[in-house]
């Protein structure tokens, strides 16, 4: 029996294996504007509007909430494969706050979809049967 990758990291039988140095999304209000941060999570939304001049907007979810990521064209071109195909991403960039919304403006994007594999397995039953 195959077990699909999760469509949310907020609730599940197993904790997500958080990448090192990634800040919890609920804590993104703590670092100052312009601080360099790393966030990681499941890709919920990926948008590349035709009017955005090559900018990609990504919404990531970890077990504590969401993070908004802005990927400018030059960064998109360097990390295209991860931006386009990654089911889970680790993003490093600078915090930007505008009109009460916090964004991470990416300068590095890494595909960490492999970390979801452990979540796609059924949890051990604890009775020696699983």
Describe this entry's structure for a reader.
By secondary structure, the chain is mostly beta strands. It has a domain at 25-114: OB fold (Dihydrolipoamide Acetyltransferase, E2P) (Beta Barrel), CATH 2.40.50.140. Helices cover 9% and strands 37% of the residues. It has two helices and five strands. It has helices spanning 73-78, 80-85, and strands spanning 36-47, 56-62, 65-71, 88-98, 101-111. A five-stranded mixed β-barrel has the order 1-2-3-5-4. The radius of gyration is 16 Å and the shape is globular. GO terms for molecular function: 3'-5' exonuclease activity; nucleic acid binding. InterPro entries: DnaE2/DnaE/PolC, NA-bd_OB-fold, NA-bd_OB_tRNA. Residues 37-112 form the OB domain.
Name the descriptors.
130 residues; mainly beta; OB fold (Dihydrolipoamide Acetyltransferase, E2P); five-stranded mixed beta barrel; 2 helices; 5 strands; 9% helix
